Amino acid sequence: MPLKYPICALYFSLHPRMGTSPETVYIAAPKIIYMSDKKVSGNARVQDSLFGKENYIWIIAGLVIVGLGLILMAGGKSNDPNVFNTKEVYSTTRITVAPVLILIGLAIEIFAIFRKPKA
To answer: What is the pTM (predicted TM-score) of this model?
Structure first.
């Protein structure tokens, strides 16, 4: 059973007004178009899903790369709280590699969202 959500409530169609002089006067009457009333013509295909299978694969890959970047950025805990280990806190992995991985993962997410699924 399809749900009836209006696509546009500001679509106006012209109707002749009754009881007027010989020249026809048209008035604008609002008309609601429902998604279930949309007609598909020719070879046009109605797609049920917003994203295709490949989009979801790209989304998962982006999430994995962002997660890997967050895992690489975590840590740096010292066994002794009075000792500050600069090599561990300011390592190249935490300062450079992990943020670059997170940015690459976010770029992949943007690509996955804007990519049109193949028909």
So the answer is: 0.57
